[in-house]
Structures are given as C-alpha cells and as structure tokens.
Design brief:
Layout (H helix, E strand, L loop, with lengths): L1 H33 L1 H28 L26 H6 L7 E2 L11 E4 L7 E4 L8 E5 L4 E11 L2 E7 L7 E5 L3 E4 L3
Antiparallel strand pairs: 1-8, 2-5, 2-8, 3-4, 5-6, 6-7
C-alpha cells in the first residue's frame, strides 16, 4: 500500500511539473508574440552595433598599415671609459654634487658581496645567469651587456670559474649565479 501511494504521488508531481512547464511556455510564447517589436528592435540594434565595431576595426587597421609602432625593449647604458680627464674640466667636475658610475677593470678592483657590478665583455653573446654555481646548472635567464646587478652571495669555485650570486636591483625575479670573468665593479652606482 505504501509503495502504491508513493508511486501515485510521484506521478501526480510529474504531471503537475509538466503542466506548469507547458503553462509557462505558453505564457512566454504569448508574451513574445505581443512584444515582438521590442525583441526585433533589440536584435536589430545589437547587430548594428556589432557591424559598426567590425567596420571601425577594419578602418583603423587599414589606416595604421604604414605605421610601425616600436616600443623600446632595452635601454642601453654606455660603459664609462678609462680616459684621462681634461685638466680644465676638473674644477667643474669637483663642483658638481652628483657622480656618474665608474667602471673599474677587474684586474684593478676585486669584487665582493654587497658591491655593484655591470655585465661586460660578452661581445653580444649575453651572460648566462644560472640557478646554481656550475656549468651544468640550469640557465635562469640571459643578462645583456651593461646590465647592472648587486652581488648578494659568493664567491663559489666550480668548474674552473669563480661564481657570484647576482640580483637585479630593478627586477628582483632576475637573480642567479654568474661567472666573475664577465663582471666589472662599479665605483658609484
């Protein structure tokens, strides 16, 4: 008895749901038929806006075909040279409060933790910055000639080279180990 009542009850619920669905569908259909002008107007305006956007994009693409927009990817900083200053300009240089960075050859100045260095002598090949000291370590990124770094670790002797841990002061995510041969100490960063 109990099973028969639950089956009959679920059958009644199912019929009620079908009846309700049919009623709502019929009401929606009647609403749509009464207000078809608004529906058509909305669809028409939407299509018009879409087509206008396509035409405007096409026109702006054609008008910019001859123009090339180039954004600088790298700022080049000239390496200071070891030229002797003009004696007449020494008084002017002494009076200025700001000092420019000075690159010291590696033979003259030893580098150490906490100092600033510049990448030099790669002849355009760029310096490989690695995850760990050693030639078999994974390359993290390539540093450009004249890139500036601060030394935060080292020295480590591996594979016949002296390795230093470098950090880019402008982008902390650019850090890793590099060989000393391509690093030059900066006097006034």
């Amino acid at each position: 008895m109990m099973g028969r009542h639950s089956t009959q009850r679920s059958s009644n619920v199912g019929q009620a749901l079908v009846s309700m669905r049919n009623r709502y569908f019929l009401e929606f259909k009647q609403h749509l038929l009464r207000n078809w002008r608004w529906f058509a107007l909305g669809m028409g305006l939407g299509m018009l806006v879409f087509v206008a956007a396509l035409i405007q994009g096409y026109i702006s693409r054609i008008s910019n075909m001859g123009q090339v927009s180039v954004l600088p990817a790298l700022t080049v900083v000239a390496i200071p040279t070891d030229t002797l200053p003009d004696p007449t300009s020494q008084a002017t240089q002494a009076s200025t409060a700001t000092q420019s960075p000075t690159l010291l050859p590696s033979a003259e100045a030893e580098i150490d933790v906490g100092e600033w260095v510049i990448v030099a002598g790669t002849e355009g090949d760029r310096l490989r910055i690695r995850t760990q000291p050693g030639l078999s370590s994974e390359i993290e990124f390539l540093a450009y000639e004249n890139d500036v770094f601060q030394i935060e670790g080292g020295p480590e002797d591996r594979d016949g080279y002296v390795w230093w841990y470098l950090v880019n002061p402008y982008d902390g995510s650019k850090s890793g180990w590099a060989v000393e041969n391509y690093l030059r100490r900066m006097e006034n960063p």
